[in-house]
# Entry
Amino acid sequence: MLAALIRPRFPACILALVLCLGLAACSTSGQSFHAMDLGQIKPGQTTLEQASRILGAEPVNVYSRLDGSALAVWAHKASLLTDAIYFRRELWLAFGPDGKFIRVVNSTNVPVPAPASAPVSTQSPPAAVSAAPPQNVPDKADPLGTLSNTPPAYEPAVTYSLPQ
# Structure
């Protein structure tokens, strides 16, 4: 009679046990944020509140300094099967005393857009200044200077005479 009660519920019990063990091995901390929108944050223009809106999350920590500037940290960590499979992203942004974004201080697994480069010049570079050839440089084919009559470029610290 007991076997008749257990047999139909056995697959459901096994499935529930597997799901419970799988969920126990997962953990997350921080808050997911939109790292791909980082290019919309402009130095000297974007405030901390605007950056939070652009990234889609509040920072996990904001370190205020005495001069009024701040360092904001966005972080998201997730682990599956405790330390076997994990995901980690961090973004540290500096804001000046005026509350405007200054620069990316640090990033982990977050693609940081390259800063705007200086305009490309179409002028030719200045003419190269010819320098006198270096003195006392060994020949590439004979670095020790043993094949030619010129002395070596350096004095050896120890010399050994070989029997002939």
The chain has two helices and five strands. The radius of gyration is 33 Å.
